[in-house]
Amino acid sequence: MASTSFTKQTLFPVKEPSSNYNPYPLPLARYEDVAASPKLFLNTLEKLHATIGTKFMIPIIGGKELDLHRLFMEVTSRGGIEKIIRERRWKEVTALFNFPSTATNASFVLRRYYVSLLHHYEQIYFFKARGWIPISSDPFQNLSIMHIPTQGAVRPAIEIHAAAIQ
To answer: Which residue, among 93, 77, 148, 144, has the nearest Cα to 118 in the 3D structure?
Structure first.
């Protein structure tokens, strides 16, 4: 069993196996390549979700498809989701998307989508992690990184539609 120290996060990338260790699949491209090509990014993201057995769909926020490539690039350009949350800079990322004022919980939903759809991708392609260990805790405590199962579907957060919020 590997000796690891746990930080205040729900997912902890590791390099050595332990009893709860979940290996990541190998990346299919380099970070620089997925950063430069939204098409390659979406292709590798879809394949990752198929490989780990999670449902993949492009979310709708404020009546528009969320640009997952842009979201991924904005987050990784700031050092990753955990750093952004730790430094309380999530509002910077949310502001870049110019969601309608009727999408009152857009920041919360955007973060939930990032965690459910992009966090593992970030770990593999940006941080080059080889695996992760799930830690059971409140998913929105501390860094707000939630456990994402390796089997079954990830339920996306409630979609925000301008017409639905009156």
So the answer is: 148
